[in-house]
């Protein structure tokens, strides 16, 4: 031992430093081994496959070809490894799937065995000459440790807690404006205590006022106009306007006359430069809208043809038909001024679904007429044939028009009493429990501007009829005739309610469905009027006659519009088959197909492209499949042309 001397570590040569394989800091060479790894910034606790670092690999380009003898030896070693794996001579083998021969080579340029880990699914390689499971055991320990660390240090995202990015205080007004506009939310919602509690602290500290949010929306609208105008100019095809001047911030300072509305629409359309692309306008059926359509026609936009291209809001049409049915059962007559006022109510308010929020309405049914009386007299004009078809009411009928008025008045009085008297409401609920009435134990209120609230009130009366008969005063006592009326009227109104739901759901309403819906309503009302099964008394059949007359009016307007017929032809399920099933005249069917072809060729058919140049002697492509000329039409334009 005394004669031995320590050898100083050799300094790396310049060739080694410049070889590009591994650069080592010269100052680290003289450091102790346990400090060198830390000085390099390496993790001294890195346990990621220590066993793999011991395996020296070579460049794959230098691999010699595998001979048959070597292939046989490798398969023998694999068979031995399978036997050892099956025998489970070491517990670590249970953490791996069966081994296979990998293409990776060891230092002897021989292929290695790979053991896929069941936990991380990584293949752990081992030379065939090495029968020790040491490297496999190390990886199992490393894998289990990593898995345990992940379980102990669970991220907040796994618990449903997600962070938010930092918000610039200057962006808060814009973010609030976008939040209000995207969901059509009122500005006052920003200051509600419940909303502030879930807002970002930066937003709460810099929350803008309602006036600032309103002005911010205007500035955002101005900022995006140029890009919007550019995108509209690039659009090839027709455009359709959806107008709702009662809900939108329209800037109209005067009265909403048809002329004034038309001038305002013209300013907006010409500002965006789309007057040559407007084909149709979607609106409700207010009288001033008809005047506006005629005024816009005078502007001579090339594609707009006036009333035939007016797409009427079908939800509003359903509302008017239901009003016509309920009108004979109103409690009192109203003046012409009141009729005009209610006729021009926003269609969205008239068809709005009855919800618990309407319970907070204050005595709407006390201060005005029922929704059944909101249709003007000139909306339902029965001709001589209609009058002759009306049935005479008899005293022995289950109910008459006069008794219907009294019955509906009793229903409204009961709903009002339960809404205003907590004691009566509690007693009513107790009786419903005793009688086994279905839930909910409440009577819906008949809001005058929403016809479907009448239907929901009738359904609630039928649902809780056993309890109502016991707990009402004598003047509001419900008889069998009242229940019969409620049941019959609910059957008549139910299809209107279901169709309104369909056309009110975003994305589900289709223009082609309007013709089908009108035919369904016509068949429904005609069956009730014919009374083949003697189901309804004359009072209700006469009311349905008024609804059918109004349905025929809008049916005629629909059939006169080419847009509805074009939509029917382009419908994949209808085409021209529905016209034949509905027994339309062949002349009408031919006209619908002609309108479709004209609209396609005028507005949507792309311009003809020059044929691509062909090679002198193109080599035929052998595919073994003969393609017909129809299948070679790959563009959508070809498919539409073949379709029509």
Automatic annotation (TrEMBL):
Q: Which GO terms describe its cellular component?
A: nucleus
Bias kind Acidic residues: ranges: 48-58
Signal peptide limits: none
- A GO BP entry: regulation of transcription by RNA polymerase II
Chain segments carrying region Disordered: 1-58, 603-628
Check the record and name the InterPro entries matching this protein. Answer: RNaseH-like_sf (IPR012337), Vacuolar_transposase_reg (IPR052717)
Where, if anywhere, are coiled coils annotated? none
Superkingdom to which the source organism belongs: Eukaryota
Q: What is this protein called?
A: DUF659 domain-containing protein
Tell me what organism the protein belongs to. Puccinia striiformis f. sp. tritici PST-78
Q: What is the lineage of its organism?
A: Eukaryota, Fungi, Dikarya, Basidiomycota, Pucciniomycotina
């Amino acid at each position: 031992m005394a004669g031995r001397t320590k050898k100083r570590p050799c300094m790396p040569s310049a060739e080694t430093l410049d070889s590009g394989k591994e650069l080592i800091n010269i100052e680290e060479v003289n450091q102790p081994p346990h400090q060198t790894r830390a000085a390099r910034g390496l993790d001294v606790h890195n346990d990621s496959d220590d066993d793999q670092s011991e395996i020296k690999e070579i460049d794959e380009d230098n691999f010699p070809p595998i001979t048959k003898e070597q292939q046989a030896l490798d398969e023998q070693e694999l068979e031995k490894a399978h036997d050892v794996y099956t025998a489970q001579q070491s517990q670590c083998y249970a953490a791996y799937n069966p081994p296979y021969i990998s293409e990776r080579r060891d230092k002897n340029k021989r292929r290695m065995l790979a053991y896929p880990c069941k936990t991380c699914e990584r293949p752990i390689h081992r030379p065939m000459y090495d029968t020790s499971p040491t490297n496999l055991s190390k990886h199992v320990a490393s894998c289990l440790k990593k898995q345990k660390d992940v379980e102990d240090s669970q991220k907040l995202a796994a618990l449903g807690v997600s962070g938010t990015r930092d918000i610039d205080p200057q962006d808060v007004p814009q973010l609030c404006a976008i939040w209000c506009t995207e969901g059509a939310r009122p500005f006052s919602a920003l200051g509600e205590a419940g909303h502030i509690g879930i807002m970002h602290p930066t937003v709460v500290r810099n929350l803008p006022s309602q006036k600032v949010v309103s002005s911010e929306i205007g500035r955002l609208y101005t900022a995006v106009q140029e890009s919007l105008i550019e995108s509209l100019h690039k659009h090839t095809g027709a455009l359709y306007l959806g107008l709702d001047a009662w809900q939108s911030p329209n800037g109209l300072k005067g009265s909403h006359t048809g002329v004034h509305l038309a001038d305002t629409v013209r300013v907006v359309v010409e500002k965006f430069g789309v007057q040559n692309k407007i084909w149709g306008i979607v609106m409700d059926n207010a009288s001033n809208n008809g005047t506006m359509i005629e005024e816009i026609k005078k502007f001579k936009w090339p594609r707009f043809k006036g009333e035939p291209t007016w797409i009427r809001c079908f939800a509003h049409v359903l509302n008017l038909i239901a009003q016509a049915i309920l009108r004979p059962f109103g409690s009192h007559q109203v003046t012409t001024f009141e009729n005009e006022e209610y006729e021009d109510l926003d269609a969205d308010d008239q068809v709005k679904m009855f919800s618990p929020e309407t319970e907070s309405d204050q005595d709407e049914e006390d201060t005005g007429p029922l929704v059944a009386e909101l249709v003007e007299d000139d909306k339902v004009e029965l001709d001589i044939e209609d009058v002759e078809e009306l049935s005479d009411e008899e005293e022995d009928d289950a109910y008459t028009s006069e008794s219907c008025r009294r019955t509906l008045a009793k229903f409204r009085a009961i709903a009002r009493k339960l809404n205003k008297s907590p004691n009566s409401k509690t007693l009513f609920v107790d009786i419903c429990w005793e009688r086994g009435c279905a839930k909910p134990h409440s009577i819906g209120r008949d809001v005058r501007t929403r016809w479907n609230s009448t239907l929901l009130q009738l359904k609630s009366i039928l649902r809780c009829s056993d309890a109502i008969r016991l707990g009402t005063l004598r003047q509001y006592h419900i008889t069998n005739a009242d229940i019969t009326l409620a049941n019959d009227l609910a059957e008549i109104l139910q299809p209107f309610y279901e169709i309104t739901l369909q056309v009110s759901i975003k994305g589900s309403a289709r223009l082609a469905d309007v013709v089908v819906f009108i035919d369904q309503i016509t068949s429904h009302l005609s069956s009730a009027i014919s009374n083949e099964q003697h189901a309804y008394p004359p009072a209700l059949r006469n009311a349905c006659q008024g609804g059918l007359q109004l349905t025929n009016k809008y049916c005629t307007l629909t059939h006169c519009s080419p847009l509805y017929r074009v939509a029917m032809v382009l419908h994949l399920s209808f085409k021209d088959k529905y016209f034949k099933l509905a027994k339309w005249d062949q002349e009408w069917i031919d006209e619908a197909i002609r309108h479709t072809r004209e609209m396609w060729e005028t507005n949507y058919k792309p311009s003809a492209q020059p044929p691509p140049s062909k090679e002198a002697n193109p080599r035929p492509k052998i595919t073994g499949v003969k393609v017909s000329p129809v299948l070679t039409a790959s563009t959508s334009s070809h498919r539409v042309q073949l379709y029509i």
